[in-house]
Amino acid sequence: MRYGQRRVLDDIRVPALTAGSLTALIGPNAAGKSTLLRGVAGLAPASGRVLLDGEDLARSPQAERARRMAYLPQTLPGRSRLGVFEAVLSAAMAARPGRGHAAAADLHAVDAVLARLDLTALADRGIDALSGGQRQRVGLAQALVRDPAVLLLDEPTSALDLHHQYRAVDVIRRETRARGLITLLVVHDINLALRFADRVLVLHDGRLVADGKPGAVIDRELLARVYRVDGEVTGIGGRPTVLVHGVVRRPHSGAGRREADAIGNP
Ligand SMILES: Nc1ncnc2c1ncn2[C@@H]1O[C@H](COP(=O)(O)OP(=O)(O)O)[C@@H](O)[C@H]1O
Ligand SMILES: [Mg+2]
Fold first, then answer.
1. CA–CA separation, 121 and 72 (whole Å)
2. For the ABC transporter domain, which residue ranges apply (predicted)?
């Protein structure tokens, strides 16, 4: 994938993602994560192919691709006069074309997704009167209610407080498992990836540099090389957790703490 003459993603071969599994797509700023998601969604030109159940998606109309893949962009949902319930219901209806009016099942699906994302109390509130994090949860509700085969979520937790970050990713994982979705989730918080993802893909400078189970992929060497931090993965309360000691100022100079500047120390 390229912007003008500049090649952003080169020779990316994403391994097959299985139904019912949550894959975290991680990597530093500008690695190409959003570009890759747009390419998979068919929203930006890409050379190469995207296959779903072996079928080349470029051969089906974009509307059909959009029906099978729910894509949540990194930007928060824009201004809208709709209320929260209406906005999520209209997403549900858009995903089931040919249905003239909302059926009871659609209304139930909207109620259920609002409850899971802690939005029930805001159901009648206008989108314009929501905070950034509340709007982001509405965007996520709209993606989930579409009931797609593939869920492409670009930093859906970036504006959320801790409670709603964990709650949202837990809901994403549950829905992925229960409905057999193929879910690709861009997330910056490595601890969220460690906790919830079945698998992690790491993008760095437009290349896929690691792929595997979170515990196998995320280690001291990756933190230094890709994220330029001096950190470690350690067990806290029985859970693998990333601790960052400092930033590595000089890239590619090794992973030792000697090259790192400690942060937060007086
Ligand atoms: N619309 C665009 N036009 C030109 N360059 C872009 C555009 N969008 C992104 N880029 C560039 O492509 C690279 C990858 O961007 P992006 O996919 O947004 O990264 P990420 O989501 O990993 O932070 C960056 O160098 C960015 O500056
Ligand atoms: Mg991005």
1. 23
2. 1-230
Q: Residue 65, Cα to own-chain centre: how many angstroms?
A: 18
Distances (CA, A) of 105 to 35, 112, 137, 146: 35, 10, 21, 13
Q: Which residue has 């959320």 as its token pair?
A: 160
pLDDT of residue 249: 84
What is the position in ligand 1's atom list of the atom closest to the CA of 4? 4
Per-chain mean pLDDT for the chain = 92
Nearest CA to ligand 1 atom 14: 32
pLDDT in tens, 181-191: 999 999 999 99
Residues whose CB falls within 8 Å of the CB of residue 188, separated by 6 or more in sequence, listed in order: 26, 155, 158
Query: Of all protein residues, whose CA lies closest to atom 16 belonging to ligand 1?
Result: 32
Strand, helix or coil for residue 102:
coil
Q: Would you say the CB of residue 206 lies under 6 angstroms from ligand 1? A: no
Three-class DSSP category at 124: coil
- Does the beta carbon of 30 lie inside 6 Å of ligand 1? yes
User: Domains along the chain?
Assistant: 2-214 (3.40.50.300), 219-266 (no CATH)
Using alpha carbons, select from 181, 161, 173 the residue that is nearest to residue 69: 181
Q: Is the CB of 12 under 6 A from ligand 1?
A: no
Which residue's C-alpha comes closest to atom 2 of ligand 1? 3
